Amino acid sequence: MYSETTRGIQVTVRPDYLEDQSSPTENHYVWAYHVRIENRGAETVQLKSRHWKITDALGRLQEVQGAGVIGEQPVLQPGDSFEYTSGTPLSTPSGIMAGTYQMQAADGATFDVAIPAFSLDSPHQAIRLN
């Protein structure tokens, strides 16, 4: 699990390689990632948008931006949490993801919350010893 806290908002991510949805012979690898967003701060916030940076094993970067997550823009009061699962495919057997959620406080101010960088590892990644 990977976790990071920004302004009292803790984001925890657990990636899982999906063997049954992947096809290594066709360079198609799929991961699910489970996200928990917990408001450990003192102010109510709403998740407005997301910005993901997905880098494959060859260093190719894909950016994904949009409103909310899984079609929702959850409001988190102090002590509340929100969980969801999403996924991403890659054409390489490993990669890395990181990003930010844009939050809006009750007073209208917006701020970015870091999504911790996490590795996407499959059993098909060649191991190289230094």
Automatic annotation (TrEMBL):
Transmembrane segments: none annotated. It comes from the Bacteria. This is Protein ApaG. Residues 3-127 form the ApaG domain. It holds the Pfam family DUF525. The gene is apaG.
